[in-house]
Amino acid sequence: MNVVVCTLSASRPVAGVVHPAILQYLFPYSDGQPLTGADKQLSDTLLRLWVNFATTGDPTPDASLGFRWTPISASKQAYLSLTPTPTMTSSSRLNEWLLWTSFPTEANRFLHLDRIQDPRRPYSATSSSPAPQPPEENFFSFLLALICYFIAF
């Protein structure tokens, strides 16, 4: 996987996830060479995670893989580090996570209902959630984040 990351970012290091890099482990590419060693082990683990999630709703429903993939939450910022021996790793990027989960996208309305006000429903004064930002403030926040992203990368 590091080969793909380096290939995609020869001039600068990658900050974060290169999502397409995982494809070589699901659909072996590797210049026509079969996966071997650690790559084969990671490929097998990824396939088991996906099958477990598709069949049970939990990528690690038991201890058979030797680790548990626990969900991320506002109080526990950890992610699964996908290596030949995957482990849960702490994240120090809470502010970035809070920024991206604050945008009023359909996914955020589903995943973070407590943080996002649905514009199709009027704000309730008795609600415990804060008043929603006007749409133009959300747009400018998004635009600012997008500009910062392109400047940084």
UniProtKB/TrEMBL annotation:
Gene3D superfamilies linked: alpha/beta hydrolase
Q: From which residue to which does the signal peptide run?
A: none
> Which top-rank group of organisms is this from?
Eukaryota
**Keyword Cell inner membrane among UniProt keywords:** no
Carboxylesterase type B domain ranges (all copies): 13-95
Q: Does the keyword Glycoprotein apply?
A: yes
Please provide the record's keywords in A-Z order: Glycoprotein
Protein name in the entry: Acetylcholinesterase
